[in-house]
Amino acid sequence: MGWALALHGGAGDIPRSLPAELRDRRLATLRRCLDIGTAALRDGRPALDVVELVVRELEDCPYFNAGKGSVLTSDSTVEMEACVMEGATLRCGAVSGLSTVVNAVSLARRVMENTPHIYLAFEGAEAFARNQGLETKDPSHFITEHNIERLRQAKEANRVQIDYTQPMTKKPGMDPPADDNSQIGTVGCVAIDAAGNLATATSTGGLVNKMPGRIGDTPLVGAGTYANAFCAVSATGKGESIIRHTVSRDVAAMMEHRPGMTLHDAAARVVGATPRGDVGLVAVSASGEVCMVYNTTGMFRACATEDGHAEVGIWTDDGHSVSIGL
Ligand code: ASP
């Protein structure tokens, strides 16, 4: 057994018509993040540091729905959320309702390490970020043109949606918006380091056109994010489905209570029990098994293991091996 990691940039109804330029930018970011995570694991960094490092990179990239690039609430505001968890200790930290914190994942880690609590939200979380000296920016920093357009589309169709929901059927007399295919997604990373420590981190802007105050699965320990001594899981997709099915904890519980079950079988069972089109996840087990499972059209994803396997993909038939700066 050696180190391993997997990351995602969101699951959903990702259209095959995604313009090559947008697809390639996101694939390049996934590859870059895979390289960063791989290099850190090779350097002997702990899994918790690695998942935070990778998720920070993804948060800083405007092509994914987390940090800069977060989708907008129905009030055209950003409310970011994140969670981190360490498998061996079950220590975890979570944050919600952030509008100025540049890296929500790092604030979640500070909550875990520097408070007696697990979960801080809204004003209290913002005040704690300042108290900890974390970088903050004006809320306008996080709002991209793409997300203003995504919100416009969602409002026009009167729906709350994950980023990858295909646009509604064209309304009579109305042209489809120019950037229909500009979908972006929630981010997450799971890792096991050379010492066998498991960790997970997930970060998101949530759903397009969500009600202000809505909290999704990402920061809810056991729903979008969970790690124990058996595996680490980060989920993406429709938060309400992920919460109902306690997706991440269910995978970990199967690994815990059904000795001999592979991680892939556990993840496939849990995801298979959720409504089709709603859920994806990445996970790593204590034995170094990696899996990336989804019941959506696609999931932006990447993984690497110490034995040299590395893969990046979006749809089911395009997962391809990549070299990881050996
Ligand atoms: N799970 C996220 C949420 O519901 C959205 C996503 O994964 O894209 O907030």
UniProtKB/TrEMBL annotation:
It is an enzyme of class 3 (hydrolase). The record marks G185, T186 as: Cleavage. Coiled coil: none annotated. Keywords: Autocatalytic cleavage, Hydrolase, Protease. One of its GO terms (molecular function) is asparaginase activity. Substrate binds at R214, I215, G216, D217, T236, G237, K238, G239. Pfam families: Asparaginase_2. The active site is at T186. GO terms for biological process: proteolysis. It catalyses: Cleavage of a beta-linked Asp residue from the N-terminus of a polypeptide. Its EC number is 3.4.19.5. InterPro entries: Ntn_hydrolases_N (IPR029055), Peptidase_T2 (IPR000246). The keyword Protease applies. Heterotetramer of two alpha and two beta chains arranged as a dimer of alpha/beta heterodimers. This is beta-aspartyl-peptidase. It comes from Eleusine coracana subsp. coracana.
